[in-house]
Design brief:
559 residues; five-stranded mixed sheet; 3 helices; 3% helix; seven-stranded antiparallel sheet; single chain; mainly beta
Amino acid sequence: MKKALLAISLLISSYSYSQFPCVDGLAAGIYPCDHVELAKFMALNEVGADGNTNDVWGWVSPNTGKEYALLGVNNGTSFIDVTDPANPVYLGLLPTHTIASLWRDLESFGKYCYIGSEAPGHGLQIFDLLQLDDVTNPPVLFDETAHYDGFGNSHTINIDQASGYLYAMGTNTFSGGLHIVDINDPLNPTIAGGFSQDGYTHDGYALSYNGPDEDWVGKEVVVGCNADALTFIDVNDKSDCQMISTLDYPELGYVHQGWFTKDFKYFLLDDELDEQDFTVNTRTHMFDVQDLDNPVYMGYYQGESTSIDHNLYIKDQFVFESNYRSGVRILDASRTSQSILNEIGFFDLFPNNDFALFSGTWSNYPFLPSGIVLATSMYDGFFILKPHLVDLPAVVPVQCDTQVNGFQITINADLQFPLTISAADVPEEWTASGPVINGPGTYDVVLGGGWDAINDATLVLTTNFGSTYEFQFSTELCENTVAELNENNSLIVFPNPSNERVFIDSKIIGGRIEVFDMTGRMVDSTRISNARTEINISEYPQGLYIIKANNQSVLFEKL
């Protein structure tokens, strides 16, 4: 699909599909917020729940590209089409395998969803997610596609997406430790082994390790949140799992759940009981795990709220924490190496109070390509949130009727400034550049080196201490490419970029040349009286501008 040049400005302003933006610190007039808006709230009865929500996951159909929420509820698993976040569609419910339960945990692997629960005898439900694409008359009462009965109840599950092994934790087997299931044949899972040496595991992070500890690269490891300790487990041989190391920390309440930072150097942990046990504000604990045999406790970040923290997930440098009664809090992890975390945004799903009690947001899912965040509020329902930490277009038109390609990026959150702009995951000759970013605001990004259509390019913002923020975008060709422009020779702007003056060559005499900044405001206008027109741009602020004449639009950069 091709777009004209003006699609740049349309894309820049297309983020506000939310029904309830964050205005003066409130969304919908009741939810405290900062840089996060509410796309949609669905009450319990609107998502098929008759008691509470719990876990939530996301999935993208490989056939249609639709985005779906996989929502744990007390009486089963609810499926919601969130492709249009402001107008989600509840598709139906997969009933629990046995009885209702407060607890349910789920993840996807390929086109299948795997679901465990604390309900007695529940085992592991397996559901073919491609069915969701075919729902035409919702809501539907779904049937499970397959079932695994190697355990009864479980508290959580985690899947190593690279190896195809599922780790069920808190089951009635292996003393509540790891129950390992081979799901490489997705509808015919088989037990592969277990680990009971360190007793009960509440939650865990399983991965085929590719981090900084060379001793473990290429091996499978599980980080177990084991209530009274953080435990690292070698699960490479499923029949003979071995403990790598274990550690605790001061004022330990309950080692609940955690996630690796994007460089796998650090592990951030939610302790579910320290707020109650020690009367402290919400704490996020930090560990240096560059040596898995000798992990080191680094300390904690303490927020301003008294609520209990529950589940956290990390996307790039952003930590998305579901902290029960204080809502989804977003922390900047770019300075974890210095034992520093900073809150840069939030959405409070439970505005009544921040008491250290077990209600409010159970979990969230921040990994969908659209950038929306799925979140549960246990006794209220399901929230779809849209963070506005950093805004940039998802698709950028290139090779338009101009010699310069570019777009604008808006920084809303208080990141670790200053930041420099570059590009990654593109051919070496393609570049992204712009001014040094010294604070929140809107900045021009110039794409140089002959950008062509590409999926999943990366815009990189680099701090002065080496950490990076990374954002994905794609490019596509305009209808009027540079080659077509040169062939028609209808409007040429040079030099481009420039800091003093530009010349506009046009075969058509008459009409006007108009200059617009990237907000759409006209900043200059002159009549075309000769084949070449000169415009003095020395007083223009630095940035990108659009010259329009004779039904042509040309983007140029003022240095």
